[in-house]
Structure formats: structure tokens, C-alpha cells
Amino acid sequence: DTAVSQTPKYLVTQMGNDKSIKCEQNLGHDTMYWYKQDSKKFLKIMFSYNNKELIINETVPNRFSPKSPDKAHLNLHINSLELGDSAVYFCASSPRVAGGTDTQYFGPGTRLTVL
Amino acid sequence: DQQVKQNSPSLSVQEGRISILNCDYTNSMFDYFLWYKKYPAEGPTFLISISSIKDKNEDGRFTVFLNKSAKHLSLHIVPSQPGDSAVYFCAASLYNQGGKLIFGQGTELSVKP
């Protein structure tokens, strides 16, 4: 009964490959997010979706494409993986599109290693 | 250009004493500040928040103080317990920015028995 789940937990792949990370939330939330935690430990937002509609798209390479088939799922597809894509990717959700008034609930993270 | 900074990567405290974690920010338009706690191999979990119109918010052992003139906030944990050992992230939000949170790089707290 995990609130926000991500698969896989670990992903090791070669440069140039295409991979996807899946995220699901069972909290009934309207808004979902993808964050990237780089080697310097900063958590940086990549995308947010509200009811399947893209709300935030930070300056992320277009090799990264989020897909939201329904409001409970937000998947992240990455084309032509590069060494610099190695990081931990966190999915999160919140009841609404809001700032600090709505808590964001995070998944356990997916550690991506590009060789 | 990091708008939220936690300059202490680690902090070690004795059980029962006070832990003080610090956070500095540069953008005076932030409307909410939050603290998240993260255990290894888990995602961050929300701990406590404060509106920019307040200077203090308390929840049990956790108190957050906001000094807007200094663009500084701090999290106080009293008394500290070994189970508090984790990485603490400070985050800030801007009104009407789609729920975007801007995080600091975290401070690893170790509470020793």
C-alpha cells in the first residue's frame, strides 16, 4: 500500500540506450512531479503535471520526455542516455498545484547509472 | 545559481541535546519554506513548514525559525533522538509556480546515543 511507488529502484545501462522509469501514486492526488538529485545532492525539479497536463518544464534536455497516461501515473522516458544523466530520480505527488501549502509526497527514488 | 543553500553538509549532536540546522536563501519572493527529512534509500518526507509571513512554527520537538531580513531559516530539534539521524533538506516555494520546490543540498544529522 505504498503511497508513491517507482520502478525500477536501480537501473544500470549503457550510454546511448533509451530507458523508462515508472511512477504511480495511490493517494488520489492531482499533481505529480519528477526531481533529479545529482552528484552534489541538490534535488532539482524537472517536470510537474496536473491532471495529465504539463505545468512545469524546467530547462531539461528534450531527451527527457514525461508521459502521464492518467493522473495516478507519471512516467519518465529518457532517450540516448548520457553519462551525465546518472543520478537519483524522485517522483512526487501533491493534492493540488500549490506551493508550500500542499505537502509533496516522494517516492523512494530510482538510482540510474549510465556506463 | 543556487537560491537555497545549506552550508553545513553534516552535523553531529549528542542524544538529548539541541540540533540546529541552518538554511540561507537569496530570493525574497519565496512564500513558503519547508523542511524535509530523508533516510537512506528512501524519498524525502515532509517535516514542517513556515509561511513567509510568520517567524516561528512549532510542531512537537521541531521548531522552524524564519529571519526574513537575514534571509535565513533554521530548524531546531529538541531533544534530539538517535532516530532523528537523517539528511535534512530545506526547501522554498514561490507562489503560483506550479508547486515547484527549490531545495538546498541537505545537511546530514547524526545523533549519537
Give a short synopsis of this structure.
The complex is a heterodimer of chains A (115) and B (113). Chain A is mainly β and 115 residues long. Chain A has strands at 4-7, 10-13, 19-25, 31-37, 43-50, 53-57, 64-70, 73-78, 87-94, 105-106, 110-114.
Mind explaining what this structure looks like?
The complex is a heterodimer of chains A (115) and B (113). Chain A has no helices and eleven strands. Chain A has strands at residues 4-7, 10-13, 19-25, 31-37, 43-50, 53-57, 64-70, 73-78, 87-94, 105-106, 110-114. Chain A is globular, with a radius of gyration of 13 Å. Chain B has 113 residues and is an all-beta fold. Chain B is built from no helices and eleven strands. Chain B has strands at 4-5, 10-14, 19-25, 30-38, 45-51, 56-59, 62-67, 72-77, 86-94, 101-103, 107-112. In chain B, strand 4 and strand 5 (45-51) form a beta hairpin. Chain B is globular and about 45 Å long. The A-B interface holds A 4, 31, 33, 35, 40-45, 48, 50, 55-56, 90, 92, 94, 96-109 and B 2, 31-34, 36, 41-46, 49, 51, 87, 89, 91-106.
The proportion of residues forming helix of chain B, as a percent range, comes to: under 10%
Low-confidence stretches of chain A: none
Number of helical elements of chain B: 0
Count all strands of chain B and give the number: 11
Overall radius of gyration of chain B: 13 Å
Query: Residue ranges of chain B: pLDDT <50 for 5 or more in a row?
Result: none
Shape of chain B: globular
Tally of alpha and pi helices of chain A = 0
Q: Which sheet architecture does the biggest sheet of chain B show?
A: 6 strands, mixed
- In whole angstroms, how far apart are the ends of chain B? 38 Å
How do the SSEs of chain B run, as a string of H and E?
Answer: EEEEEEEEEEE
Q: Main sheet of chain A?
A: 7 strands, mixed
Mean pLDDT of chain A: 91
